[in-house]
Design a protein that fits this description.
The structure holds 2 protein chains of 2 kinds.
Chain A: E1 4-5, E2 11-12, H1 21-43, H2 46-62, H3 70-90, H4 92-104, H5 115-121, H6 125-136, H7 141-148, H8 152-175
Antiparallel strand pairs in A: 1-2
Helix pairs in contact in A: 1-2, 1-3, 2-3, 5-8, 6-8, 7-8
Chain B: H1 8-11, H2 19-31, H3 33-46
Classes of the chains: A mainly alpha, B mainly alpha.
């Protein structure tokens, strides 16, 4: 079912209104890492990444509109993951939880020795998501612009500013060593 | 970033879903409302 080619040559995510365990595991093995790392880059913790991960795949298996290609399918998943991530970030409930966590200093679940990852995770969200899609997913600025529904010049500026902040931050960290 | 000999991809390599999470997701998807909704739709289409 998943990944089947139709007689017209188009690519369909689902032809039958039902899916098997194999379909789910196949989708997870192809897209799982991508769908997990995006919310992690927003929230810096596994609990929120896990919630969004499950929501995205639930939506994916509710999706019955055909995808034009694998590229289209992956871009759809990334867009939905980003939308879920931003939506949670905006929720008042989550803002209160984050404030409580910061108060108790329990937010960081990652290796503190990983300077680069920590520096990326400290970037403002608009720079962080562009850096992630460019360096981790390997998308071009044009493709990122399409995924985020923004102008390519905006993406290029954000990438440039994000890199500049990282460069200064890493320089600062290394100067202490 | 490359000038610092760090690789963002490498930094993220251990950030991934656990086997337990994937098993739970598979189980939930097979048993939750999504599956039921699709089964209902399939049943309606076939009869």
């Amino acid at each position: 079912m998943l990944g089947s080619i139709t007689s017209e040559g188009g690519y369909w995510m689902k032809i039958e209104p039902y899916f098997s365990e194999n379909d789910i595991r196949n989708a997870i093995s192809i897209y799982g890492d991508t769908v997990y790392k995006i919310p992690f880059s927003y929230y810096k913790n596994h609990a929120d990444a896990e919630d969004i991960y499950q929501n995205v795949f639930t939506k994916y298996f509710q999706q019955v509109v055909p995808f034009e290609s694998k590229v289209h399918e992956k871009a759809w998943l990334i867009r939905v993951t980003i939308n879920f991530s931003k939506s949670l970030l905006r929720s008042s409930w989550h803002k209160r939880i984050i404030l409580l966590q910061e108060y108790h200093d329990e937010t960081v679940y990652i290796d503190e020795n990983n300077i680069l990852l920590n520096s990326v995770l400290e970037l403002p969200v608009k720079y962080r998501e562009v850096i992630h899609l460019y360096y981790y997913e390997g998308y071009s600025t044009r493709e990122i612009a399409a995924i985020l529904s923004q102008r390519e010049t905006t993406i290029r500026t954000q990438l440039q500013r994000g890199r500049e902040i990282l460069r200064l931050k890493l320089k600062e960290d290394f100067s202490y060593e | 970033m490359n000038s610092y000999d760090y690789d963002y991809k490498e930094a993220l390599k251990d950030i991934k879903p656990s086997k337990e999470l994937n098993d739970k997701l598979v189980n939930d998807l097979l048993n939750n409302k999504v599956a039921k909704k699709h089964k209902k739709l399939k049943s309606a289409l076939l009869h």
